[in-house]
Every structure is written in C-alpha cells, then in structure tokens.
Predict the structure of peptidylprolyl isomerase.
Amino acid sequence: MQMIDIEQIPAGITPPPIRVGDSTIAEEAIAREMQYHPADSAGNAQLKAARALVVRELLRQRATELGLDVTGEEETDLAIAALLERELDVPEPSDDDCRRFHAAAPTRFSEPDRIRVRHVLLAAAPDDAEARDAQYRLGQELIEALRTAPERFTEFAQRHSACPSKDEGGELGWLTPGQTVAELDRALQHLSEGLHERPLASRYGWHVVIIDERREVHELPFEQVAERVRHTLREQATRRALRHYLLALEARIGVDGIVLDEDADGSLMQ
C-alpha cells in the first residue's frame, strides 16, 4: 500500500485534510511531530509524522470505544498500552521455532570481528596542510623507532598522543566495526596483527597503530543465544500482528487524506 506523496502535490494546491473517522489531524500537529521523525527531506519527515499521528488516533479512538481513559497525553499512552496488551494477539515462539531460526541464520547471532588496538594520535586539522605534513613525518619517525624498540609505545603515546587513551599507554581496548571514526575504522578492518608500517589518516590527524590481537567472527551455539533468538522472533511476530491490527482499524474506522503503508507498525514500534 502507498502513501500520498506530499512532495508531488503541485505548488499552490492545498493537500486534502487528513481525517481519522470524524477527527481531523491538524497541520500544526503534523509540523510539531516532524521533529521526532528525521528523514532525508522535509516531505518524507512530514509523511512519517502524519502517519504516526494517524496510528495514534486510530488507537485512541479504539481505546475510547472500549471505555479506556484518554483524557490527557499520559492517560492516552497508558490506554494505548492497555489496549494493545488486550487486543494484540502475538504468538509466543516455540523452542523448535527458535532453533530453526537460529539454524537458518547463525551468523546473525555470532560474535563480530574484534581487534585489540593501541594508537598514538598525532593531531592535525584536515585543512592544515603544514601541520599534517609535520605530523606525518613524526609518525614515520615513531614507527621507525618502534621497529627496534616496541616497548617504547607507551612512552610515545604519553608524550605525543592527542587522544585521552594516552593515559592508558594508547590502549583503545577491543573494538568492533563502527566503534571509531569511519575512515580509521575502514583501515583497521584490513590490518594484520602488529605495528602498521605507516601512519593512518583520519579527520583528526595521523594514527600510529598496533594491532595486538584479532578475533574473527565465530558462531555461537543456540544455548548461548536462545533468549536473543526468542526476543527477535517475538519482535517480528509483534510487528506482523500490529500491522494487521492497524490496517483492520484503518478499514473499519476510516482514514482519508493518507493511506498507511506496509510499515504501518513502524512508528509505534520505534
């Protein structure tokens, strides 16, 4: 199912009002809601905000039908939670379901690649060519010295590093992908253990790097991740049940001006 694309409405033409049953979603309410729905364009943020308000209004009206208290924002939140607890039918995954899911996608529940890293950050701004050249040369000097005296790394980190890790001798500990600045992160994933032969660049300057240990991805047995698997399946089942529930409310109560798409549950699950 598709949503009306507000960005495609010709200039000068007012989009139709959004109504849920007999209630109208005010443009001002959509504008206030947009801050909670970041997107790649204002139009997409507006669509997400409008959809979230439609979902909330559908649930509020259903809660009203059941006599639940929706007199204020906090009361409405509690009523919606009680409503979903009462009416949403979410099957509990069985042990067999969990085992089959784990067997079909074991890497989803694996330990990621990890590397134990030490570094010396030689700070230089991206637009300061003179400082970057000078710090690169210093990095080369430190690497040359470390080739013959690796025990001096802690000394060099404490003397030269602009990173707070200098107080720990340059120790960054165990890192997984995505835990450090992007350009350095990409380089680290491809390095072998030991002292890297040249300084590595980042937006912060140059890094003298030692990889002390690397541990590759390895699969974990079902018994160690059983609860994670069960939680994943329960969340998937909740999303499916919630989507069907919302679309059924949409069909019964009536929504004009916008149509909930296949991710109707998304704004509520977030």
Notes: The chain is about 45% helix and 15% strand. The chain has two domains: 6-93+226-269, 114-215. The domain at 114-215 is CATH 3.10.50.40 (Chitinase A; domain 3).
